[in-house]
Write a structure and sequence with these properties.
The protein is of the alpha/beta class and 421 residues long. Helices cover 38% and strands 16% of the residues. α2 runs antiparallel to α10.
């Protein structure tokens, strides 16, 4: 499987031993039985499980350091503030941002995209402007742009996708002209696993003066991302898809763009001073963080970043590639199974249907055998419509999955097929 230049640990990596059995010991949720079967968790594109180190960080904060940040005059508040801001610095380092001021805490990818759409798009777009959005985008990278377009008179234009589930680069470049002000693309398709050539797409967009937002929710859990190498203007992702807690996410934005944007919400923390005659907004990144922030989960996300930093990520990536290659091979030999998408440059996702069976029925039968997958349109209805599918079964892999998990998936599919005959 050939990876593209947007994957920072990509081509020509050396073979590295990766002990998945040792890694799995860090994830307590994996060691349980579901419907009297050992859990085979293949729904990682929806959310990943958490290592004990992340769980311990959350318990430690609530047990010892629970306090509000920045404004307290006591020891607990000082400790909470130090940990909270250390998490921001760690996330900046994790994605190679230029400064921690470029890291804005959000509730997740969805809020990050909405913030950019409303604060950047809402303050700059006008009638006649265009926003290019990939046809394979998650709904959270479509609907916010439609909302701001309706308000400003701009137009959302879909970027075509091929039958293999790849962005049509020739048509993308043909769409780029001076009317295009924003390009919104996913780093990896959550529905198909396609890895998009983000770096080159950013370069082409910048050539016509457009800014680029990248939805990185499906990328950050698989390999290292580098904001300076990608050169995108905004990058958003969620903690819970990279082994951290739910309810916390990151918006990376170029500092000059964030400085020029109006705040998203008003309230405490995002102000420097308030009077009825004038309110002065706070400096970055705080002007986008109104109210009490999600302190505990930011600290938990820091623990997830530390966990990934201590992991052999080269070996983990190779291991994931081997899992997907094995799944592709078994899928090709599975009678009645039709892969959906199937771009050669993919990560982590096997999306498929079984002839004559509804995806939700397959998902239920797999769950009865302890195999957890996702079924439906995966919040990506436009690409499902283009591929003439109402939905798919999606098995999605992470580095803690095993070759046995892949084999158990296909054994369970064989039993499901027999039941449905």
């Amino acid at each position: 499987m050939t990876m593209n230049p947007d994957v920072q640990l990509a081509d020509a990596l050396p073979e590295v031993a990766f002990d998945v059995d040792v890694v799995r010991q860090d994830f307590p949720a994996l060691h349980q039985r579901v419907n009297d079967r050992p859990l085979v968790y293949l729904d990682n594109a929806a959310t990943t499980h958490k290592p004990q180190q992340v769980i311990d960080a959350l318990v430690r904060f609530y047990s010892q350091d629970n306090s509000n940040v920045h404004r307290g005059a006591h020891t607990l508040s000082d400790r909470a503030t130090v940990q909270f801001e250390a998490a921001r610095v760690a996330l900046a380092d994790f994605i190679h941002a230029r400064a921690s001021e470029e890291i804005v805490w959000t509730s997740g990818t969805t809020e990050g995209i909405n913030l950019v759409a409303q604060c950047y798009g809402g303050s700059r777009l006008k009638a006649g402007d265009r926003i290019l959005v990939s046809e394979m985008a998650h709904h959270s990278n479509i609907v916010p742009w439609q909302m701001v377009a309706e308000r400003t008179g701009a137009e959302v234009v879909p970027i075509p996708v091929t039958a293999l589930g790849e962005i049509d680069q020739a048509q993308y470049q043909a769409l780029l002209d001076e009317r295009v002000k924003i390009v919104a693309i996913g780093h990896v398709s959550n529905a198909l696993g396609t890895i998009n050539p983000v770096a080159s797409m950013v370069e082409h967009a910048h050539a016509v003066g457009a800014v680029v937002l990248v939805d990185g929710a499906q990328a950050v859990g698989h390999w290292a991302v580098d904001m300076q190498a990608l050169d995108c203007d905004f990058y958003v992702f969620s903690g819970h898809k990279m082994f951290g807690p739910t309810g916390i996410g990151v918006l990376y934005g170029r500092q000059d763009l964030l400085e020029a944007m109006p705040p998203y919400m008003g309230g405490g923390e995002m102000i420097e001073s308030v009077s009825f005659s004038e309110t002065v907004y706070n400096t970055l990144p705080y002007k986008f963080e109104a109210g009490t922030p999600n302190i505990a989960d930011a600290i938990g996300l820091h623990a997830a970043v530390d966990y990934l930093g201590a992991l052999d990520r080269v070996g983990a990536q190779r291991h994931e590639e081997q899992l997907l290659a094995r799944a592709d091979s078994m899928a090709a030999d599975c009678e009645g199974l039709e892969m959906v998408g199937g771009a050669p440059n993919r990560t982590g996702v096997l999306s498929f249907n079984l002839q004559g069976a509804h995806p939700s029925d397959i998902g239920m039968l797999l769950d009865q055998q302890g195999v957890a997958v996702r079924t439906g349109h995966h919040c990506a209805q436009p690409i499902m419509d283009q591929l003439t599918r109402s939905g798919t079964v999606r098995a999605s892999f992470s580095f803690y999955n095993t070759q046995e998990d892949v084999e158990l998936l296909f054994a369970a599919l064989a039993k499901a097929t027999l039941f449905l005959q």
